[in-house]
Design brief:
With 138 residues, the protein is α+β, with helices and mostly antiparallel strands. The protein has 3 helices and 4 strands, in the order H-H-H-E-E-E-E. Strands 1-2-3-4 form a 4-stranded antiparallel sheet. Strand 1 and strand 2 form a beta hairpin. The longest helix is centred in the first third of the chain and has 23 residues. The radius of gyration is 21 Å and the shape is elongated.
Length: 138
C-alpha cells in the first residue's frame, strides 16, 4: 500500500508529464509556422512591397483577388533541435465543366526552425517557388 507521500509524488510526476506533453504539442513546429502565417496575413502593407516571403505571398493573393490559399506542411529534415519544413500554398478560382480545378495559383516556402529547450523559433523563411499561376495544360 502506498503511503500518502508516495501517492502525492506520483500524482505530481504524472501532472508534470501531462503538462510537458500538452506544452510540447501546443508549440510544435507546424503550429509555430501556422501562427506566424496567421500573423503575417493580418499585416497589410499599403505600399504592396515587402521583403517578408509570407507577406509577398499574401500580396499576390490580394493582387489577383484569390480566395484564402490552402496551406500544407511537409517536414523534410528533422533533428532534435532543428526542423526544415516546406510549406505549400495553393489557391484556385474555379472548377471547369469537367470538374477539374482551373487557375491554380501555387507557391512554396521553406521554413527553418530551431528549438531552444521546449520552444520552437523560426530561424529563416526562404522562397522556393514564387506564387504563380500553374500551367493549366489539358
Amino acid at each position: 500500500m502506498l503511503t500518502r507521500k508516495a501517492a502525492l509524488i506520483i500524482l505530481v510526476l504524472v501532472m508534470a508529464i501531462i503538462f510537458v506533453a500538452i506544452y510540447t504539442m501546443a508549440n510544435s513546429p507546424s503550429r509555430v509556422i501556422q501562427k506566424y502565417i496567421s500573423e503575417q496575413s493580418t499585416t497589410v502593407n499599403p505600399s504592396g512591397s515587402s521583403t517578408n516571403p509570407v507577406a509577398q505571398f499574401n500580396q499576390y493573393v490580394t493582387d489577383y483577388q484569390l480566395p484564402t490559399p490552402s496551406v500544407t506542411f511537409n517536414t523534410i529534415k528533422k533533428t532534435f533541435s532543428s526542423r526544415e519544413v516546406l510549406v505549400y500554398f495553393a489557391a484556385f478560382t474555379y472548377y471547369a465543366d469537367d470538374g477539374q480545378l482551373k487557375n491554380i495559383h501555387s507557391g512554396t516556402l521553406s521554413f527553418s526552425l530551431t528549438r531552444d529547450l521546449l520552444r520552437w523559433q523560426i530561424h529563416s523563411v526562404d522562397i522556393i517557388n514564387d506564387m504563380q499561376l500553374a500551367n493549366n495544360a489539358p
